[in-house]
Design brief:
The strands form two sheets. The protein has a five-stranded mixed beta sheet with strand order 2-1-6-3-5, with helices on one face. The chain has helices at 20-27, 59-67, 94-97; strands at residues 3-6, 10-13, 46-51, 56-58, 75-76, 86-90, 116-118. It is globular, with a radius of gyration of 13 Å. It is α+β, with helices and mostly antiparallel strands. It is built from three helices and seven strands. The chain is 17% helix and 22% strand. It binds FE2/S2 (inorganic) cluster. Residues 34-36, 38, 40-45, 76, 78 line the site of FE2/S2 (inorganic) cluster. FE2/S2 (inorganic) cluster (FES) binds next to loops.
């Protein structure tokens, strides 16, 4: 079982292969945003990896991070799964932004259908 540490919150054993955005929300109890419903459009599920950053990303993540000038600064928790131990820092939450809710419930699987590419260095 991968171990997820959320900075300032705690450490949690999470189901192998669980979407990271859902693990942060459901296992760690953090009110992380996913305003587009976890379709790699809004970037509000953004996190920083403090440990365990994956070397691959979905093409959808790469394209939206590039278009928002976020490449190298943030990753999208809706575009990856818990397949290793990791430590993360959520960057946008309901409580930190004052928005009216996190957004539509994410599907259990990565959406859109992932096409994996190497993370640019
Ligand atoms: S980009 Fe919108 S929830 Fe991840």
């Amino acid at each position: 079982m991968p171990r997820l540490e959320v900075e300032g919150v705690g450490e949690f054993d999470v189901e192998e292969g669980k979407r990271l955005v859902l693990a942060i929300e459901q296992d760690a109890g953090v009110d992380i945003l996913h305003r587009c419903g976890a379709y790699a459009k809004c970037t509000t599920c953004r996190i920083e990896y403090l440990e365990g950053e994956p070397e691959r990303m979905t093409r959808a993540e790469l394209e939206v991070l590039e278009s928002r000038d976020l490449l190298g600064q943030a990753r999208l928790s809706c575009q990856t799964v818990c397949d290793r131990d990791m430590k993360v820092r959520p960057l946008m939450t309901v409580s930190s932004t004052g928005l009216d809710g996190p957004g539509p419930e994410p599907q259990p699987e990565i959406t859109p259908e992932p096409e994996w590419v190497e993370k640019p260095s």
